[in-house]
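Appendix B. Raw example, untouched.
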Amino acid sequence: MKKSYVIGGVVIVLAMALAMYSFQSTLTSYVSVNEAKASNRPVQVAGLVVEGTDKYDLNSNNLLFTLREDSGDEMKVEYDGPRPGNFDNVTKVVAIGKYEPKREVFLAKELLVKCPTKYEGRVQGQ
């Protein structure tokens, strides 16, 4: 075999390994509240905003709320960024970030919000 083919094969294998490692390190999996509290990696947690718990400080651009998942487990979520414009009507929130055990809060670097659609829950003829 030619030396250039071997070197080319090694370069291709290394490039593929690097691409797979990079791709895997950017993935954040959906986990439960308890799993998020135990994880030291960025994760995604989905749930509902507990009514009356959201507080937004316009000066510091900081949103704090309590997230409750389907099982009933809850955790405080802190998001440094603008409050989503549709946050009052949200039916589901996905917080992406890491849990900070010392402060007992999930530090979200990103929030995804789902709002009700006008096509859901309508009775025909209304």
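End of appendix B.
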